Amino acid sequence: MPDRGGGPTGPRIRVGRPSRRVRTLLMTLGVLAVLVMAFVMFAGFWTDWLWYRSVDYSSVFTTTLWTKVGLFVVFGLLMAAAVGANVWLAHRLRPPLSAMSMEQQNLDRYRMGIAPYKKWILFGLTALVGLIAGASAAGQWRTWLMWVNGVPFGQKDPQFHLDVAFYAFDLPWYRFLLGFGFAASVLSLVAAVLTHYLYGGLRVTSPGARATAAATGHLSVVLGIFVSLKAVAYWLDRYGLAVKASDFKATGNWTGLRYVDANAYLPAKTILFCIAVICAVLFFATLWRRTWQLPVIGFGLMVLSAILIGGLYPAIVQKFQVQPNEQAKESPYVEKNLKATRAAYGINDTKVTEYPGKSETDDKSKLRSDADNAASIRLIDPNVVSPTFQQLQQMRNYYAFPSNLDVDRYTKDGKDQDTVIGLRELDLNGIPKHNWINDHFRYTHGYGVVAAKGTAADAGGSPVFTESDLPSKGSLGKYEQRVYYGEKTSQYSIVGGPQKEIDYSDENGERTTSYKAKSGVNLSNPLNRAAYAVSLGEPQILYSGAIGEGSRILYNRTPKERVEAVAPWLTIDGDSYPAVVNGRIQWIVDAYTTSNGYPYASRTTLGDTTADSLTAANNQRAVVAQQNQVNYIRNSVKATVDAYTGKVKLYQWDKKDPVLKTWMKAFPNTVQPKADISKTLMDHLRYPQDLFKVQRELLTRYHVKSAQTFLSGSEVWQVPDDPTNKSGNAVPPYYLSMRMPDEANQAFSLTTTFTPNGRDNLSAFMSVNAEAGTSDYGKIDILKMPSAETIDGPKQVQSKFNSNEAIAEKIRLLRGGDSEVEYGNLLTVPLDGELLYVEPVYVRGGGLKYPLLRKVLVTYAGKTAFEDTLDKALNVVFGTESETPAEPEKPGDTTKPPPATGNETVQDALSDADKAFKSGQDAMKKGDWEAYGKAQDDLQDALQRAADAQKAAGEKSTDKNGSDKGDSDKDSGEKESGKGS
After folding, report:
1. Where does residue 545 rank: exposed (0-12), middle (13-18), buried (19+ CB within 10 A)?
2. Residue 568 preceded by cis peptide, ω within 30
3. Whole-number Å distance between alpha carbons of 684 and 577
4. Nearest to residue 449, comparing CAs of 426, 470, 464, 427?
5. 830: part of which helix (H) or strand (E)?
6. Measuring CA to CA, which residue among 610, 634, 636 is closest to residue 689?
7. pLDDT of 811-836, one tens digit each?
8. Which range, of 269-278, 545-554, 609-618, averages the lowest pLDDT?
9. pLDDT tens column, 918-952
10. Does the pLDDT at position 82 exceed 60?
11. Is the dihedral of CA 849, 578, 561, 432 positive or negative?
12. Which residue has the higher pLDDT, 535 or 975?
C-alpha cells in the first residue's frame, strides 16, 4: 500500500529469523539439555548395575531387565500394530466421494488440515499407545516368569481337577493376555470409528446410509474380536470361581466355590460362553450379509443373558435354596475350604489336644520341681530393656540399639541358654558435629555385640551381660565386631580411601580404621563418581579430595533392603536378627514365597495379620508387603547378610515349595541348597514370627475339622489384646525354651494364647517348635481348654494382678516419687494340667529413666505371688515359702540390707553392707558403673558374712536350749533376731 500520510516515515523493523550465532547457541543448549537428561537416566541404570555386580547378583538385574524390555517391546509393538493397522485400514476403506452435506463440508476442513501430517499423526498415535501398553506389560514381569517357569504343585483342585499350578502360574498370565486383548480391541475400535467418521465412512446427519459397506465390514470384525474375547473371559471365569474372593459370614474372607457358585454361577458362565460364541459368529458374518441386524440382536441377547443368568438367577438360588438350609448346602464346600486353607498355610498337621486346665497333683514340692523343668522363664523382655542396654552399653552417643532387641540361643558350659542380643549400631543423630565428611566418611559403622542372659538379672535389676563393653568381650569369643550393615544403617558411607574412619574409643583415645572388604562400588573410576554424584544428588562426590584410590561407596545397607533387592520375588519377615556365626556377625533374615492363587484357600492381608502391639508402637516389625493379599505362604528361604561385608546368601529352606522352585528356575544359581547351611548357622535359625502370626490368625477359625462346627461359629477364637499395655493391639508371640506336656525335654519355642471370640477367658495355648535342625521343627501344638469351664486368660490374669490389694500396695510404693512401673512380657507355660503365668515388672526410677527388673509376678491355680525373684515367687505360689510382707521402698533402690541384730559379728557385717549399699547408690547416680559393680560385690560379700554369722548364732542357741532350760528366754530372743535377719 502507498504511503498516504505525507510525512516522514519511521525506521523499518524487520522481523526475520534469529542470527546464526543465536541459532547455534539455542541448538547447543538443546543438545546439552538432551545429553544431561540422557545422562541422568543412564546414571540410574548404571548405578543399579554396579550395585548388583558388587553383591554378585548381576544375573538378577539382567534377567529382570531383559524380561521387562522384552515385554515392553513385544506388547508395545502389538498394541501399536493393532491400533495403527485399524487406522490405516479405515483410511484405505474411505469412500471415494463425500456426501454433499453440511456435516461433510465441516469435516472437509479437518481433512484438509491434517492431510500434510497424516503419517506423523499415525506414527505419534501408535507410538503413544505402544509406549503405554509396553510400560503396562513390563510391570507383569513376575507373571510372565512364573508362567514360563511354572512347576507343578502335585495337588489338584476338587472342582475342576486341575493342578494348583494352573491357578497360581497360568491363570494370572491368561488374564493379563485377555485384558491386553480387550484394551487393544477397544482402542482399535475407537480409532477405526473416528477415522471412518472423519473420512465419510460413517455419517451421523448426512442423507443416505449411516455407514458404508466397507466400514460396516471393518467394524463388525473388530466387534467380533471383542465379543470372542468376551467368550474366552466367560470360559476363564469358570476356573476363576475356584480362587474367587467373597464375603462369607462364617469365614469372613472366603475363597473358592460355594453352593451358589457351583450350582448357579458355573452353569451361567458356560451358557454365557456359548451365547458369546454365537454372537461373535454373527458379527463376523456381517462381512457377507452387510447388515447389523442379527449381530445387534445377538449382542443384546448376550447383555440380557448376563443380567438374568449371571446376576438374577444366582441371587434367587442364594435366597430361596441356600439361606433356608445353609449348613446342609454349604457343608461340602466348607470341607473343601478347610482342607485347602490348612494345606496352603502349612497348618494341616496342627495337633490339637484337650487340656484339663486344672492340676491334679497335690504334691507342692513336686510341682515346684516341675516348674523349674517346664521352661527357662525369660525375665529379660527384649521389647522393654533396650533403654537399659542403651544406658549401660551405649558407650558413645553415636551408637544405638534397636528399640526391640532379639532372642537367640547360645551354648554356655554345654547348655543352651536363651539370650537377649543387640548390636551397637551407628546412630548419626548422636555424632558431635554434622558435616558431609563426618556423616559419610568418618562415622561409618557400629561396633560389637551386647548380649545378656534371658533368664536372670543382677542384684540391681540390670541384665546379666554375657557380652559387653567396647570392644565387646565375653562368652562369644573372637569375631569381627565392626557393623557396617544393620537395621539402623540407612545412609550411604564412602570408605576405604584416603579419609580414615573412627573405629572406637578407649582409654588410649580415639582409634581409626580403614575398610578392608571389597563390598560396595569402587569410586576410583570417574564415570562411577559422576554417576553417583547425579543419582545421589551430591556433586561433592565428583571432586572431593576425600575420595581417592580404594574408595568404595556402601548403600542399601539394611538387611531387608539387601535381601529384597537381590530377591525381589520374596516377601521379607519384619524382624531380622543378628547372630555370631563362625567369627562373624550375620544378620539372619526369614523370607517367604507367597501366592493368591491357591484354589479354595481363604485369603489374608499380611499387613493386618502380622500387626500386634509391637508393630503399633514402631514400624520395625511390620511385613514389607503391607497390603498383599495371599492365600498361600511358605518360609522357603533363609537369608544371611554379613554385618561387615554386606554379602548376601540365600538358602533353600523348603525343598518342596513349588513357588520357590519356579523362581529358582527363573533365577538360576541365586539360591544355595539347604545342605550348604553350616551347623553353627543352623543353631541360630528359628521359626519366623510373621509366619507364626499368620498361622495363628488362621487357626482362630481353622483349628476345627468339622464343617458343621465351622459354620456354627461356636469354636471361633481370637488372639487376645496385649494386657501389659493400653495399645489395644494383639499380644505378640514370645520366644522361650519350654517343654510341652507330651515332650521329655525343653525346646526353643514360639508361643501364644487364644481366647473365645468376644470374651477374655482362655480357649487354647499354641506353640511351635522353633528349633531349626531338629526333627520337630515347625510342629504346631494347640492345648485346647475345656469349653464347659472358665480358665483365666491373659487379660484376666493381668487384671487379678492389678486388683490384688497387697500387690497394688507394692506397685504403689514402686511408683513413688518420679518412678514408673512397666510390665514385661506375660509368659504362659503349661504345667501339670494347668497354666503358669509369669510376668517381670520393671521400674524406671530416678533421673536415669531406664527400666530395671524389680519384681516378678507369678500366678498358678488361683494363687498369685509378687516377689523380688522368680525363685521366691515360685516358692510362694507352690507353698514352699511364705510370702514377703509389703514394706515401704524408696524409688530407685535396688537392694536393701537386712535390719540389724544383737549379734556383734552380724552387726559388723551389716554395717559393711550398709556402707556398700550407700556407695552403690552414689555410684549409680554418678553413672560410674565400674564403682557400682564393685559396691554390689562388696554388698553381696557383707550380706553373706551376716548370714553365716547368723546361722552360727542360731546353731549355738539351739544347743543351749537343749542343755540349759534357764537360758530359754535369751535364746528365744536370739531366735527372733535371727528370723528378723
Report:
1. exposed
2. no
3. 10
4. 470
5. strand 827-831
6. 610
7. 888 887 778 888 999 999 999 999 99
8. 609-618
9. 676 666 555 565 666 677 667 677 766 766 765 55
10. yes
11. positive
12. 535
Closest CA to 794 of 710, 720, 859: 720
- Per-residue DSSP letters for 634-686? EEEEEEEEETTT--EEEEE--TT-HHHHHHHHHSTTSSB-GGGS-HHHHTT-B
Q: Report the C-alpha gap between 91 and 94 in whole angstroms.
A: 5
Q: Which of 824, 168, 193 is nearest to 457 (CA)?
A: 824
Tally the C-alpha atoms within 13 A of residue 286's C-alpha that lie toward its C-beta: 29
What does pLDDT average to over the chain? 85
Residue 63 reports pLDDT greater than 60:
yes
Cell numbers found for residue 197 = 467418521
Q: Which amino acid, residue 580?
A: V
Give me the half-sphere count of Cα atoms (radius 13 Å) on the Cβ side of residue 316: 8
Convert the pLDDT of each residue in 627-654 to its tens digit: 678 999 999 999 999 999 999 999 999 9
Contact 451, 476 (CB under 8 A): yes
Residue type, 925: K
Only one residue has cell 471361633, namely 716
Contacts of residue 632, Cβ cutoff 8 Å, sequence gap at least 6: 168, 344, 345, 594, 595, 596, 597, 598, 601, 659
Q: Which amino acid is at 332?
A: P
In three state form, how does the secondary structure of 337-394 look?
Answer: HHHHHHHHCCCCCCEEEECCCCCCCCCHHHHHHHHHHHEECCCCCCCCCHHHHHHHHC
* 604-614 average pLDDT score: 83
Mean pLDDT for the stretch of residues 490-496: 93
C-alpha dist (Å) from residue 835 to 43, 371, 608: 61, 10, 29
Q: Could you tell me the pTM of the whole model?
A: 0.84
Q: How far is CA 85 from the centre of its chain?
A: 48
**817 SS3 class:** coil
Q: What is the DSSP letter of 581?
A: E
Q: What CA–CA distance (Å, rounded) separates 220 from 188?
A: 12
Q: Cα separations (Å) of 309 from 11, 235, 326, 708?
A: 84, 15, 22, 31
| CB-based contacts of 405, cutoff 8 Å, min separation 6 | 382, 383, 385, 386, 389, 420, 421, 422
734-738 and 648-652 beta bridge pairing = unpaired
Q: pLDDT-derived band of residue 901, with 50, 70 and 90 as boundaries?
A: very low
Q: Which residue has the higher pLDDT, 299 or 635?
A: 635
pLDDT (tens digit per residue) in 850-868: 899 999 999 998 889 999 9
Q: Where are the alpha helices (DSSP H) in 435-525?
A: 436-437
- Identify each DSSP E strand in 389-513 by its residue range: 399-400, 406-412, 415-423, 425-426, 446-447, 449-457, 463-468, 473-474, 482-483, 493-495, 501-506, 509-513
Integer-rounded Cα Rg, in Å, for the chain is 38
CA nearest to 794, candidates 711, 857, 747, 851 = 857
* DSSP 8-state code for residue 401: -
Q: Given this model, what pLDDT does residue 936 score?
A: 67
The amino acid at 665: K
Q: Rounded CA gap, 542 and 530, in Å?
A: 6
Q: What is the mean pLDDT of residues 367-371?
A: 89
Locate 504 and state its grid cell: 572406637
Say if residue 457's pLDDT is above 50: yes
Burial code (b: 16+ CB inside 10 Å, e: under 16) for 94-128 equals beeebeebebbeebeeeeeeeeeeeeeebeebbee
Q: Which residue has the cell 507343578?
A: 152
Encoded amino acid at 273, one letter = F
User: Cβ(746)–Cβ(737) under 8 Å?
Assistant: yes
Residue in the block written with cell 465351622: 710
pLDDT, position 626: 55
